[in-house]
């Protein structure tokens, strides 16, 4: 039976509703803060052959089902089974650091396999070199926790409890690990039930045709957008991360996208620098570029879904083994998030150099882990902090964003759950890149340490290579971490470092970076610059220095502004500390 257009939209909505239920269940029943409060989890639905038909709006997924099918042929998969893995290299980057656990289950209707359901979440500690499992000190993936190859965790409804006990035993916080596992299993089981209900209501054939249409629709639309965006020829863009924390850096990410005369699209990342000793390597699945472009092209349309159709829109993806984006086993991957964020910014850069206006670069979200003892008990505070995103073609960048749908911890939650007191939580003034459209601002957080002692790991990028601005807009402001700011004991920490000692009464100040600006800063209306000053996004000094806007006693000096703006600085295509036509 063919799925008609009306039924297709009903099924699409029903699947989205099932995803929403899965995510709500996981959020409400998980134990760890990174899942429950920060919402570091995702869901996806696949067709009967394991092709992602309805995903979450996260452009980092690869072929989730393939690694399972290699070990467990699809014809042997049975109703009631559940599969589990976190093996980054074994999955070719479908999961990209070991904290992320993937649970995958088939959906059957009347004895026939008709779909698969996936739940994915970041577990707070799975063993490894340091509490939290990710550390800038790591030099191989074995130091980042237990590795689970694709495993049949549940066989026809019977759970392999022994396998789970081995997993829990490798965690420093087994009760948390146990609770998160049960929550993720329950979420996937709910998704299986909801997908079976959809198949029962519309028939497995209609469901299968609906999923095929969603895949084809995404592929068609993405290819159409690629043709509209990229003229025939090769388009290149280079971005960089600052360092791997072990003396290597900057490390360059080089992309080339070629459209041939016969409309083949080839994505080539082989010019990217070599893998690093430190844990910033990003094992990028070949599906990621197409998925990311699909999210960019279709993200504003609620009638579309992000799925494997985006990856199918590319005819070839070239990655070089031994590079930062295709490291050789057992290179460490735990801090790959900062590289992933540069990858996404570089994809925006490709769109800009091709002549279509995409957002300027965003900062990479900041990660910190504080480990220590409080009241005689160990604690682990894993926090991710929002940053500024790049200015959009027709709007300012977004302020204080963590990543996609994830969230910053509320102050009340932090103070109730951990031995810290939040002294300040504010916008990081002047961090947004100046432009006609201003880059989004990062944040400032100050933590007073109430524990007897602690050790801090921090991950900050874009200090040496801040997020670029475009069309005359300037780069965003850098981030930094400081202990005891303004005291005699003040010390500025290395941006990617571990082993930073903290004591009771110390104050840790984190300032996160801002996004790049777009358009000449002198083209920003003076009234908007005044508003930015009054609302705390831009200082009076920066208003004059960067925007040519003179503000005295909270009011605009129009005559002085006209005079300052009469001397209009020249610009070029991109800006990172200085104007350039392209990045090397």
Defining key terms:
584 residues; alpha+beta; 7-stranded antiparallel sheet; 5-stranded antiparallel sheet; 13 helices; 25 strands; 28% helix; 23% strand; globular
In short:
This protein is an alpha+beta fold and 584 residues long. 28% of the residues lie in helices and 23% in strands.
Structure in words:
- The strands form six sheets. A seven-stranded antiparallel sheet has the order 2-1-5-4-3-6-7. A five-stranded antiparallel sheet has the order 14-15-21-18-19, covered by helices on one side. Strands 8-9-10-11 form a four-stranded mixed sheet, covered by helices on one side.
- It folds into three domains: 5-220, no CATH class; 359-520 and 575-579, no CATH class; 521-567, no CATH class.
- α1 (5-29) packs across α6, α4 (161-169) packs across α5 and α6 packs across α7.
- It has helices at 5-29, 33-36, 66-71, 161-169, 174-202, 204-229, 288-298, 309-312, 337-353, 411-417, 526-535, 540-547, 558-565, and strands spanning 41-46, 52-54, 82-85, 100-109, 112-122, 151-155, 158-159, 233-241, 251-259, 265-268, 316-318, 366-374, 377-385, 420-427, 443-449, 453-459, 469-470, 480-483, 491-492, 496-503, 507-511, 551-552, 555-556, 574-576, 578-580.
- It is globular, with a radius of gyration of 24 Å.
- The chain starts with a helix and ends with a strand.
- The mean pLDDT is 96.
- The longest helix has 29 residues, at 174-202.
- By secondary structure, it is an alpha+beta fold.
- It is built from 13 helices and 25 strands.
